[in-house]
Amino acid sequence: MPLLSKQPIDPRLYRNAMSRFGGHVQLVTTAIGKERRGVTITAACSVSDDPATVLVCLNNSNPKNDIFFRSGIFALNTLGAHHQALADAFSGRTQLSNDERFATGRFDKLVTGAPILHDALASFDCRVSEIKEMSTHHIIFGEVVAVRYNEAKPALLYMNRDYHTL
């Protein structure tokens, strides 16, 4: 299936309009051996509950994201209001090294070996079932093989280029 052709809409105009679109802040992580990667995102959602499937969207212009396309696994960690500093660390705002980013939280593993944030509101441990390239992003579909959730706490949202809680 061919990719969409370029739209006549200015990308900056589109991004400004999309900044009004609130999203739950997530941390998507993966690993191959000792190599780990984590990225703060808002483009993630449930696809199905039978079989349990989620999707995440990752910018394909960052070569460091290549590990997500090679690993075959990922974890989707739902962040709470108490994770704002961690969200900043994994978004690149703080310019921390990869090891320093992972040091801002406590991580363990469930089934696949993908890093699971210990105190995430919810974590979905996934095996990649399909990857689709769509313009500037890759859409990664994951079969959920394990789930963990913690006490319900206020959620961390991102809207109007800033964090909010709900």
TrEMBL record:
EC code(s) of this entry: 1.5.1.42
Residues in Flavin reductase like domain copies: 18-165
One Pfam match: Flavin_Reduct
Principal EC category: oxidoreductase
UniProt GO molecular function: FMN binding; FMN reductase (NADH) activity; riboflavin reductase (NADPH) activity
GO biological process, one term: pyrimidine nucleobase catabolic process
InterPro entries membership: Flavin_Rdtase-like_dom, NADH-dep_flavin_reductase, Split_barrel_FMN-bd
Keywords from the UniProt entry: Oxidoreductase
Keyword Oxidoreductase in annotation: yes
Gene3D superfamilies in the record: Electron Transport, Fmn-binding Protein, Chain A (2.30.110.10)
Name of the protein in its database record: Cob(II)yrinic acid a,c-diamide reductase
Organism: Rhizobium tibeticum
Lineage: Bacteria, Pseudomonadati, Pseudomonadota, Alphaproteobacteria, Hyphomicrobiales
Gene behind the chain: rutF_1
